[in-house]
């Protein structure tokens, strides 16, 4: 966000990790990191609700935020995979003074999407969302991450109905809108590519205009503070990541982490000749990098089931 706040979803539990989460009392949470006060660390946000919100079933995943710069408030939308129930989008309002989240409503998506992964807000209650796999049964969905079956898709929710706008994708993972909302960036997990689409202004379709090689399996995307580059967290070794994810013992099996910087031109297309790797770790510091954000010379890196890393950026130029 422009005010230096980073909202983080924690407590993801799907398929083979659900029993581990229940046994170890892993709770679904929304965390806050303030780049302007990094010494404060991560704050666990308190959730208030007057509605039927089941905290035990809250399993947050992809997250997107709308910022109201005048009021200083934020609308926070997060995908939740409640065990035994259809997937939903939970909508919250964040009040910065009290540092509290107020649950506003749940938007059901499970009847349309089998494996929703990430979402990108266009406006209040309107968003693009990835459906990573078509099969509900997890072993078959896992097969989709190895075979180019083209059964994933991107959908657009217009506030009342879910519309499929980009079909035939191989495991679409993270996505992000360009600042002018004319382009949509989608990480194709299986293909190790970033797909760039020009959007229909009414959310009814999209045209592929660029395919960028990532040299790793792209997870989530984030725009730099200046808006001149896209950050992509990737998994350089997918099999190692799977072992790390399903080991169910933190720190037992490490997985490499990488953050790639994709510079953008004036039309927000990727300058493919100037792609750089900003961060790499064998997994000792952080395993399974899932997202990265930059603010005022500092970078925050998240992971799927490991820790967060905060680091200060420096330049090799004198």
Automatic annotation (TrEMBL):
InterPro entries: 6-blade_b-propeller_TolB-like, Arylesterase, Serum_paraoxonase/arylesterase. The active site is at residue 61. Pfam families: Arylesterase. Ca(2+) 2 binds at residue 117. Binds 2 calcium ions per subunit. Keywords: Calcium, Disulfide bond, Glycoprotein, Hydrolase, Metal-binding. Its cofactor is Ca(2+). Ca(2+) 1 binds at residues 63, 118, 173, 219-220. One of its GO terms (molecular function) is metal ion binding. Belongs to the paraoxonase family. This is Arylesterase. It comes from Elysia chlorotica (Eastern emerald elysia).
